[in-house]
Amino acid sequence: MYARPRVLAVVQQGRAASVTAALPYTDAVLAETEQVGPGVGELNPNRFTVAAPDGRPMGSLLDESLIATKVAVKGGATVREALKSGGSHLTRDVLTVLADTRRQVYHVDIIQRPRVGGYARMLNPPSCSRCVVLAGKWYGWNKGFLRHPRCDCLHIPASEALGEGMAINPRDYFDSLSKEAQDKTFGRTEARAIRDGADVTRVENIRARGLGTAKAAKRFGTPSRMTVDDIYRVAGTRENAIRLLTAEGYITPSFGR
Questions:
Q1: Cis upstream peptide for 126 (omega within 30°)
Q2: Phi/psi of residue 10, each to 5°?
Q3: Residue 249, SS3?
Q4: CA 254 to CA 167: how far, in whole Å?
């Protein structure tokens, strides 16, 4: 337990660095894609690290690795095996939290720009099969970013028309991979079916049927503040989303705008 404060401090430092790196992203993408979308205010970087991305205390999320270690011991694992299990759990959670923190900055920055209709999903190859079938898909500003643990896909701020132009054909991505990479990404049987002409999206959807996505399940504790997911789920309108983001401290208004 003595290592807990140090681990938490390091993770929070990493999250702060992730926020800092993410802040100029939307402006840069809008400029590169020749889009105009001024914001209603400025993002408050400190607010994004107050809690874990799903709203719970960051420390309680990290404690799950300790729980995983104890569960492994209870299941008959050796000390070495249990520690490896807990370490893998911790690595997965930290990488996911860093990516989710960055994505929350992107999403809030899109929401607070009324002229930006939403975002397109972009791969960060190498990508898994679940992400490939979503590549290039356009989402409105109030739609959540479906992701699995350790997902590193990105938001591309865009209008719906521009988003359609960014679409990536899943079959083209599949064909760009070696046979070995195809089998590893989609599964040997599934990859063979795709090579034989089956639709990539349909094959993946059938394979993944019944598997949940990581939607910030709040199993340990109840968040005391609204998360970004909470806000765009209940806001209804852009104006209300901006109001709630401002009230929760994600946006600091720029008076005069």
A1: yes
A2: -65, -45
A3: coil
A4: 34
Structure tokens given for 159: 């209008």
Instruction: Supply the DSSP symbol for 126.
Output: S
Question: Between the CA of residue 188 and those of 9, 162, 179, 202, what are the distances in Å?
Answer: 42, 35, 9, 16
CA 1 to chain centre: 29
Q: What contacts 16, CB < 8 A, 6 or more positions away?
A: 45, 49
Contact (CB, 8 A) for 20 and 46: no
Can you tell me which residue has the tokens 């599964």?
187
pLDDT one-digit tens code per residue, 131-190? 888 888 888 888 878 788 888 888 889 876 565 555 567 888 889 899 999 999 988 878
24 token code pair = 């100029």
Report how far apart, in Å, the C-alpha atoms of 21 and of each of 80, 175, 219 are. 37, 33, 30
